[in-house]
Amino acid sequence: SDALRAEGLAKTYAEGDLKTHVFHDVSLSVVEGETVAILGASGAGKSTLLHLLGGLDTPTAGEVWVAGQRMNALTDAARGKLRNRALGFVYQFHHLLPEFTALENVMLPVLLDGKPVAEAASRAQVLLENVGLSHRLQHKPGELSGGERQRAAVARALVNKPACVLGDEPTGNLDERTAAHVFEQMLELNRAQKTSLVLVTHDRSLARKLDRVLELHEGRLRQLAPSEV
Ligand code: ADP
Ligand code: ADP
């Protein structure tokens, strides 16, 4: 079954008389556990597409299904709940809460899902161990290295065992060696949990490691042959 599906997505930004047609008629299916990269030049619309897939913005036309549920059919509250349970987000910037420890940051999505504190704590601890941060549970983001912060963000994205993780250049801020390491850990965890991944990147060497590579170009999403990546 599909972890994530989009049909006929269009997005037009309107600012006064100025209209930017980012794309129209973009469709995409991501099956359970599948990892998909979306390549594209700066301004091609990758972040816009990811926002629509994640229910953070509303398409001008088209529909998105997350874990079989149509996003547009849900109330804001139900959409927020589904987003927290069925999706994980990892951005270039970690977006961890600075006043909370790594453990507390990773516990939050579990608590928001209505689970007891003890369960949230034990799940968060397992995920942080999985990304090699068992010695950093009580550290706040400001006390972690760049790589450690992104690893904590990966743990947070995966802690609710979502259907799909949406990544927007999740290792874009790290040096090459750290980026490769964090990326490998994220992929390994995704695969272990059978969580799908949609990764927006301009880095072809990262894209090549995923099951499928698409390119967003002039408003169209096209699958690339392995020889083109
Ligand atoms: P990418 O992530 O591939 O760099 P974006 O999705 O950020 O591309 O942007 C796609 C196009 O949409 C660009 O032309 C950008 O200027 C425009 N755009 C993005 N966000 C907005 C916005 N909030 N309002 C108006 N135009 C926007
Ligand atoms: P990573 O490969 O995870 O990014 P680094 O090589 O950057 O790790 O850092 C190695 C160690 O140095 C980290 O485990 C971390 O504890 C410590 N460290 C790095 N930067 C900072 C920082 N800004 N504040 C506190 N500790 C740091």
UniProtKB/TrEMBL annotation:
User: Which InterPro entries does the UniProt entry name for this protein?
Assistant: AAA+_ATPase, ABC_transporter-like_ATP-bd, ABC_transporter-like_CS, ABC_transpr_LolD-like, LolD_lipo_ATP-bd, MacB-like_ATP-bd, P-loop_NTPase
> Which SUPFAM superfamilies does the UniProt entry name for this protein?
P-loop containing nucleoside triphosphate hydrolases (SSF52540)
> Which ranges carry the ABC transporter domain?
4-229
Q: Which Pfam families match?
A: ABC_tran (PF00005)
Q: What is its membrane topology?
A: Peripheral membrane protein
Q: Where in the cell is it found?
A: Cell inner membrane
A single Gene Ontology MF term assigned here is: ATP binding
Q: What EC number(s) does its UniProt record assign?
A: 7.6.2.-
Could you confirm whether the keyword Translocase appears in this record? Answer: yes
Major enzyme class? translocase
Q: Which UniProt keywords apply?
A: ATP-binding, Cell inner membrane, Cell membrane, Lipoprotein, Membrane, Nucleotide-binding, Translocase, Transport
State the source organism's domain of life.
Bacteria
Q: How does it assemble?
A: The complex is composed of two ATP-binding proteins (LolD) and two transmembrane proteins (LolC and LolE).
- Family, per entry: Belongs to the ABC transporter superfamily. Lipoprotein translocase (TC 3.A.1.125) family.
User: NCBIfam families of this UniProt entry?
Assistant: LolD_lipo_ex (TIGR02211)
Protein role: Part of the ABC transporter complex LolCDE involved in the translocation of mature outer membrane-directed lipoproteins, from the inner membrane to the periplasmic chaperone, LolA. Responsible for the formation of the LolA-lipoprotein complex in an ATP-dependent manner.
**Descriptive protein name:** Lipoprotein-releasing system ATP-binding protein LolD
What organism is listed for this UniProt entry?
Lysobacter helvus
Give the lineage.
Bacteria, Pseudomonadati, Pseudomonadota, Gammaproteobacteria, Lysobacterales
Q: Which gene encodes it?
A: lolD
